[in-house]
Design a protein that fits this description.
Blueprint (H helix, E strand, L loop, with lengths): L1 E3 L2 H6 L6 H11 E3 L6 H18 L26 H13 L20 H65 L2
Antiparallel strand pairs: 1-2
């Protein structure tokens, strides 16, 4: 028996989100109550055919990132980790977007002159605002670059920790296999 779910479920599977989210949504789309049919195998075959057809027709095969601004995950609890790396990664996550570009004009003795002081203060304020306009544009662009770099560092740290877990698992398997050898 095959049962089609509502359109709201179909809209959720538009390709956004991570693979586990998509798998859950895909599982909600069609319910198959036949033990002889493996929905995961069918979906894998469909994806394979789509991939082959796209490659044959010369479609772009780039993979787009599934993460946005990757947040700091914190120190791993199940691994030995580099304390310096996590210390500086935590610091950079706390401060990369903190930029103070408020107009601050230090008092000048020239502003105390009765008539010209007020005029000098207006001219000085105007030029200060003009400089801040261009500085703020550069700072906004640099903040965006910093945000992307911090996201990359966060993501690289997560990937590195996953690789370390894999290495430790493989080392345990090798040790077990060597222990079983005569």
């Amino acid at each position: 028996m095959v049962k089609q779910m509502d359109n709201r479920s179909v809209a959720l599977s538009s390709g956004h989100g991570d693979a586990s989210e998509t798998a859950v949504i895909e599982d909600m789309l069609i319910e198959i109550h036949d033990p002889a049919i493996d929905p995961a195998a069918i979906m894998a075959e469909i994806r394979q055919r789509i991939s082959e057809r796209r490659a044959a027709q010369g479609y772009d095969s780039r993979q787009f990132p599934t993460f946005g601004a990757a947040g700091y995950q914190g120190e791993p609890q199940d691994l030995a980790y580099d304390a310096d790396l996590h210390h500086y990664l935590r610091l950079v996550n706390e401060m990369y977007a903190v930029v103070d570009t408020d107009p601050v004009l230090a008092p000048s003795p020239a502003t105390r002159v009765p008539v010209l002081g007020k005029l000098w203060q207006l001219v000085r304020g105007f030029f200060h605002q003009l400089v801040l306009f261009y500085v703020n544009r550069a700072v906004a662009q640099q903040t965006s670059v910093n945000s992307n770099l911090v996201s990359v560092l966060n993501r690289m740290t997560v990937v590195m920790e996953e690789q370390q877990r894999t290495i430790e698992r493989l080392e345990r398997q090798v040790a077990e296999l060597q222990k079983d050898r005569p």
